[in-house]
Batch of 2 targets.
Target 1
Amino acid sequence: MKTISEIKEVNELRTLSLNLFNKHGFPTKKDEDWKQSTLNYFLESNKNLEIYTPKKEVINEKVVEEFKHNKIFIVNGLVQKIEFEGKDQYKLVITSIDEYYNKNNKHLSKLFSNKKNPLIAANSGLATIGYYLEVKDNLDLPIIIYCQFDSKVDQKQIHQKNYIVTNKNSKAVIFEKFLNDNKKTFITINTNIDVEKNSHFKNYILNSNNTENCIYRFKKANIAASANYESFIFSNITKTIRDEVEINLNESLSECYLYYTQFLKNNEEHEIKVKINHLAENTKSYQFSKSIMDGTAKGVYQGKIFVDQIAQKTNGYQLIKSVLLSDQCTFHSKPELEIYADDVKCSHGSSSTSLNKDELFYLMARGISKNQAKRLIVQGFLSEVIEKISDENFKNYFFKKTENMLS
Amino acid sequence: MLSIEKLNVSVGDKKILRDFNLKIGKGEVHAIMGPNGSGKSTLSYALAGKSGYEVHGKILFKDENIIDLEADERAQKGIFLAFQYPIEIPGVFMNNFLKTSLNAIKKAKGRKEVDVVEFLSLVKQHAKKLGIKDEQLGRALNVGFSGGEKKRNEVLQMSLLEPDLAILDETDSGLDIDALKIVADGVNALRSKNRSFLIITHYQRLLDYIKPDFVHVLVNGSIVKTGCSKLAQELDKIGYKEFQMAI
């Protein structure tokens, strides 16, 4: 099998991307999309980190969830172990991304798109690792991808490119659990997703206990006819992490549902950027994000709904709410609509408020202490998003996570 | 049970209660009636410990001045306020809220806290008496509740928490006749020689169902007249005008 740099088509695309990145350099505050980003500070002072060469690594199996599921262990960017259960092992294909490139030298360019984005250009130019995951049928169990980074990657950079396909009429739930024991690492993870006709893909992410690294996760999902994509990202104790997604609702009756909760305190930070492109008739998008900020924390949500001229009967919804518990924390919200069709239903709303004093008084008037009342209100506020998760098991999982986080 | 002495309450420059005095004995039911803006709701908030008011004077509850206590401490000591407009709190589920509240009060009183099984059995028992469906207990607190459901929910909390002093702030507002009867029956069931009530209302209607021992007329922040339950019927006929004009 040829290595990535030996595959001509890939090599050309990588060189092109790298040239684009070298021309632009790291994003700065002058770039509108990166104005509020705190990744800039990290990247400015860590420009010359060595690129990590992946090898066989040690898996931390202590973090494995107790319920039954299919397992993929990725350590320092490389797939180390897979365990697929029962019939699911016949419904899943996983290979390294270079094996995929070797077998498919056509249509590779779509995995190297988004060249205007400097960090995606860097990822496309430098990524030598990643996985290709194909879901062929309805999975009985969810997949948990344990994404582990250990101290071997301290003060290095890792670029990972993945490609996930859910085949026609299939269903999959993928939960990505990030576990970072590393420090000062610059990580980019670019995942391309094709949700094919009438398939359903649910993607949940636990983004927690990671304040030492700079992480940029960019997902690009193409949704086909009658297919839908649901994602939920739970962020807590994070810093210099940006989660970005671009969704193309390419065909009629394609849908996407994006849910986010952030609970950030002290000097924590997290950025969310969403772009949804309605590119066909009768498509639906739904964004719902709730954030609690405390201390000197900073949260960012940039969300844009684009409706193409041909995308009549579009239904686009976006609601971004935040509660600021201190005077020093900030939440930056930038909701945008760009509509070229005339028969659409699109709405967006964004609000940032302090804790509701009437709610606090009501609970305290029932004997509940101020701190406990605050916890109940915060938990209730975030629960409204978690309530939307359609997978009951993960809904309960994240309810418990929220409860534990606040206790 | 409760002795309020020279209570003055203001918000900014606006004086709302002026040298307000009131004594409520154990097991007594007092009604305070008055026109809009006379300070009725402010009185209930000041007693329950809502912040944002400047409060001077004495509020002696079971011989202890509670004026500096927070709302949760007052509730733990046995004061309950049934809100005129119960607050909707999205995402905070009824069962979780009720259990947290019940255990906070039990803990403060040095009593054994209830576990989930005990709690569910207890709450269902109380809810049934008030015609509250199990389904309502699984919903977010007051969210999407009708006016009647909200008021019934207040009475449910009162019956669960078993306060020594219950303040009912315009519990009759927004209730139809049937709901009013259910709520009044719920309150009457809680009347005991050890529990006192302060009922705040505009109209005599509620007092047809919950017979007070004393009726006070509150005008411009002070009590201007006190009488027995007949006073409420008189007020229903003559209104508050003559009291307002006398000031």
Target 2
Amino acid sequence: MHTEPRQSGSVTSNQTSEQPKDPVELLREAFEQVSKSLTADIEPATIYIPDDNS
Amino acid sequence: MTIREIGALLRARKTSCVEFINHTFSEIETHDRFNSFITLTREQALAEAAQRDAELHAGVDRGPLHGVPIALKDIVHTAGIRTTGASRLFENFVPEHDAVVVTQLKSSGAISIGKTNLHELAYGATSQISHFGPMLNPHDSARIPGGSSGGSAVAVAAGWVPMALGSDTGGSIRIPASYCGVVGFKPTYERVSRKGVMPLAYGLDHVGPIGATVEDCVLTMQVIGGLEPADMKLSGLRVCLPANFFFERIDEEVDAAVKNSTRLLEREGAIVSEQRIPDLHQANLAARIIQASEATAVYAQCNDPGMFNSVVWGLLQEGRRVSGHEYVNAQRIRTLFRQSFNDLWKKYDVIVAPSTPIVAPLREETDVLIGGEKENARMASTRLARAVNFLGEPAISLPCGRTKLGLPIGLQLIARPGDDARLLAIAQEVEKLLAFAQNSQVVS
């Protein structure tokens, strides 16, 4: 029996058998779980605003 | 050729800046079947080359980049030269002023030969979406070069320039460097000016070099990042080999090459410790929330979908659905990760990891199989890079071997914020070690 060797990163493109889930909802749901670790004392990270030429 | 090699030819009068620039354009015009440039600036480059020649004849040497051809990702503003972002939206946009990095590079004597192609608006990792057509990987034109700085990586990999500027919001310097077999350096956040560079996500954007060698990145960072040269020895170096995240669900050949590199470091006296690190899957989620929100904010006034590729337009619409509290919480998660990594850096000098879990996918691959699991090719490409933008740490991708198919594999080294010079010095030592090992056939 001939077996095709498995290529790393092999093609499985354009499979449409499953209806893809909404990527934003998936992201928001997953992020909501992460956010549960936050307590009120944790403040947002600040973004350093540089001088024009820095 | 490297910056040093070109500089040596110019200073030895074996060629002139004008001759070398002319040669560079001939090579690109003859051989660029990879679509790496949007705009070539021959007239301006030759005028600058003539000035650089006159300076050398007069004994004026601006330094290592004097007369050396470079290229700029086409999101970097260039006065009088269109800057398109590879988009229809900016197809005819001609900036009035140079970006700060362009001014710095011009002052160093570097000569820009043109503006490189990229994934539209730098919003993607494949470089297959561009108003000016897709880019191809020079190692295998059936494969993507990675993105978004695809054209810059291709121009360096093809040998046309020793350095091309890129930008990195979720891996856009390191991913194409990994897939094209060149060196890509993402500096510490805000180390290099972003002024005059089209933003994608303000809190994640970084500007940095893609070079033929680590030294090409060092020499560029001395100009655009105020970098002071550093020396590092591998002996005694405290290396973190992550026990989680970075080596989960990666291609077998990538895993082997990166771990082989780590063994070589250990043989040189580095102290390698396997260590669990904070869960960067969570950092990736928060980074995606920030990127979605900020990119949508940048283009919030643009209401004509016809000005965008449909995929990019879709991403910009997705950002509208992320709420304000989610954005703030993502920045709060960032605070937690900053604290965790500050603790990690008390124990280690560098983290060793793959740059990408796979090598360059085929152009038609929307999904890839890794260890039997299907994953979207774009998400796989960014998976090991994105969190480092969220953290702001400096990181570099350098080639560490090839697959049986001859495709380059990228090694990622990450250091603490502000340690750009030390990280580059470590990378130079690793590069030498890998070159020696490859020549000795230690690394396949």
